[in-house]
Design a protein that fits this description.
The chain is mainly beta and 148 residues long. The chain has one domain. Helices cover 14% and strands 36% of the residues. An 8-stranded mixed β-sheet has the order 10-9-6-5-4-3-1-11, with helices on one face. Strands 2-12 form a two-stranded parallel sheet. Strands 7-8 form a two-stranded antiparallel sheet. Strand 3 and strand 4 form a beta hairpin.
């Protein structure tokens, strides 16, 4: 697999960039074991991003929300309802937690979820807050499922 290394300032600029949905397609929120990858674009159309929603097949509360740039680079990821994460310095971070791109480490470092995420047990609400957090101004159309 090819890896793309960004400088921290490049990653920070991509994360802060205003993003819009790339199309007007309606998508269903994934069911258990499902994955949804939604294309996004910068408002100037120069950069492409992906919003990923991944749900566990067995654990109802285990979900991952992430925003990628340049196809492979995870800029930010939230893990909900999963196991604790062990950072490269051996510090254990409980779930839920958030990962940010860190130059030289990719998304290997996590920290506790910021207070701006008000209800981490509610994946639908957390998704809405995550899209705001990622500066997605024109949000994609996602149909909420029965078990969301």
């Amino acid at each position: 697999m090819t890896t793309i290394e960004l400088t921290q300032s490049e990653a920070d600029a991509l994360f802060a960039m205003e993003k819009d949905r790339a199309d007007d397609e309606w998508r269903d929120f994934p069911g258990l074991g499902g994955v949804l990858c939604i294309p996004l674009k910068s408002v100037d159309h120069r950069e492409e991003f992906i919003l990923d929603i991944t749900r566990s097949r067995i654990k109802l509360r285990k979900n991952t929300l992430q925003n990628r740039a340049r196809t492979l680079v995870v800029l930010v990821r939230i893990d909900l309802g999963g196991s604790p994460h062990r950072n490269p310095d051996n510090e254990e971070i409980p779930c839920p937690h958030i990962h940010y791109y860190r130059e030289g480490f990719g998304d290997k470092w996590a920290q506790t979820l910021p207070d701006s995420f008000t209800t981490p047990d509610d994946v639908w609400n957390t998704l809405q807050e995550f899209m705001d957090y990622c500066n997605i101004s024109k949000k994609p159309y996602i149909e909420q499922g029965i078990f969301t």
